[in-house]
Automatic annotation (TrEMBL):
NCBIfam families: dCO2ase_PEP1. SUPFAM superfamilies: Alanine racemase C-terminal domain-like (SSF50621), PLP-binding barrel (SSF51419). The active site is at C360 (proton donor). PANTHER family: DIAMINOPIMELATE DECARBOXYLASE (PTHR43727), GROUP IV DECARBOXYLASE (PTHR43727:SF2). GO terms for molecular function: diaminopimelate decarboxylase activity. The keyword Calcium does not apply. It comes from Undibacterium parvum. Residues 47-291 form the Orn/DAP/Arg decarboxylase 2 N-terminal domain. This is Pyridoxal-dependent decarboxylase, exosortase A system-associated. Keywords: Pyridoxal phosphate. Pfam families: Orn_Arg_deC_N. The modification N6-(pyridoxal phosphate)lysine is found at K68. The keyword Kinase does not apply. Its cofactor is pyridoxal 5'-phosphate.
């Protein structure tokens, strides 16, 4: 059994005991949306995160938004006006990025399973294509010849090191992502024999990391590998995408990532690269870190029951909308996301409860044995840290319940 969670992690304001989203009381926002469940994303918090990064990170470092973190079209449009580029991983995300008006040379298309149709779309749109294998390179070459166009390409590298303590490791050992570093010189030489516009390298190690020293170590290894591989490149690097990996705290005991030491280390490398790779723009590609803390998921309590001494709050939303908060189908040790009763933030009377969704599965859990304000039918449950990998990363068709709405306010 989990211990009761501490006060929820939140950047959202509270007034008169009610959570505020973009200055709007949650109860009023729910009326405006018209129904629950819904996701709400706060523009001001998105803006504030970008401002924070711009102030701390070295000047000249480009900041890209990885659309897979949250592909809501209005949010992507907003982010496009704040960042230097967009990164996509499917034909659908490519269309979303192109619709923003972002210059195509600042849109990159990565992913290990691009279809011929997606490669054709990427070539036609003249976005940067991140090559993930030798066979993808050859397929792209045939497509480019057929279209009579010269594709813009970046070689994605699977290094022999990893981002330690990351929530999801994307490199080191055998991986489906990118080309093994030891194979890269041969592919770089092959690119040089083809009619391709070579831009540079992507070296992406992992995601959701809260340890600054681990990120610093990965950055050092990344830059050293890039300098080594640059010797084999068909032309001087114009771009070096170092991935992201910046995490946000979700659970008790986790603290926010310390950025200043990471920024200081990046500044040293930027100065060195200005001499050794003078033509290369350095890109930091972030998703969750930009949007994760700017979003909430809201569901309504529709029933309250007691089963053998335990209180259950049953809501109209659950794992079909927010898989991550439910514990990812029971495949990991489940921990509670920060949650609250959004219209009773200042309530003193509390009780230990389980919060479950409407699905016919015991996996549909939004909170397990958490101390929350005493709630009744009609109250609004809020799951914080829900701006990334929420609705689009959930089995929304499971049991055919109504889809959750999404609003940018």
């Amino acid at each position: 059994m989990n211990k009761p969670q501490h006060a929820p992690l939140t950047q959202f304001a509270v007034q008169d005991g009610c959570l505020q989203v973009a200055g709007i009381p949650l109860t009023r926002l729910a009326l405006r949306v018209g129904s629950t469940p819904f996701y709400a994303f706060d523009r001001a918090l998105l803006d504030a995160r970008i401002v924070q990064l711009r102030q701390i990170l070295p000047g000249g470092l480009q900041l890209h938004y990885s659309i897979k973190a949250n592909p809501m079209s209005a949010l992507v449009q907003h982010m496009a006006g704040l960042v230097d580029g967009l990164d996509v991983a499917s034909g659908g995300e490519l269309k979303c990025a192109l619709d923003t008006g972002m210059p195509t040379e600042h849109i990159s298309f990565a992913g290990p399973g691009k279809t011929d149709a997606e490669l054709s779309q990427a070539v036609a749109a003249q976005v940067l294509i991140h090559l993930e294998s030798s066979s993808e390179l050859e397929r792209l070459n045939h497509i480019a010849i057929a279209l009579g166009m010269r594709p813009k390409v970046v070689l994605r590298i699977n290094p022999d090191f990893e981002l330690k303590s990351s929530g999801m490791k994307m490199s080191g050992g055998s991986k489906p992502f990118g080309v093994d570093a030891e194979q890269a010189p041969q592919l770089l030489q092959r690119i040089g024999t083809l009619n391709m516009d070579f831009y540079g390298l992507q070296i992406f190690c992992g995601s959701q990391n809260l340890k600054a020293q681990a990120i610093i170590e990965a950055h050092a290894n990344t830059f050293q590998l890039a300098l080594k591989l640059a010797e084999y490149a068909p032309r001087p690097l114009r771009l070096l995408n170092i991935g992201g990996g910046f995490g946000i705290p979700y659970f008790p005991g986790e603290t926010a990532l310390e950025l200043h030491s990471i920024a200081d280390h990046l500044q040293l490398w930027m100065q060195r690269l200005a001499n050794e790779l003078p033509a290369a723009a350095v890109v930091l590609e972030l998703g969750r870190y930009l949007v994760g803390e700017a979003g909430i998921y809201v569901a309504k309590v529709i029933d309250k029951k007691v089963s053998r001494g335990q209180i259950f709050l049953v809501t109209d939303g659950g794992m079909h909308h927010h898989l991550a908060a439910s514990g990812n189908l029971g495949q990991v040790i489940r921990k509670n996301y920060p949650v609250a009763i959004g219209n009773k933030m200042a309530a003193e009377n509390k009780e230990l409860v389980n919060v479950v969704g409407p699905l016919c599965t015991p996996l549909d859990i939004l909170a397990d044995q958490m101390l929350l304000p005493v709630a009744e039918v009609g109250d609004l449950l809020v799951v914080f840290q829900s701006g990334a990998y929420g609705l689009s990363a959930s089995p929304s068709q499971f049991l055919s319940h109504r889809a959750a709405l999404e609003v940018l306010v």
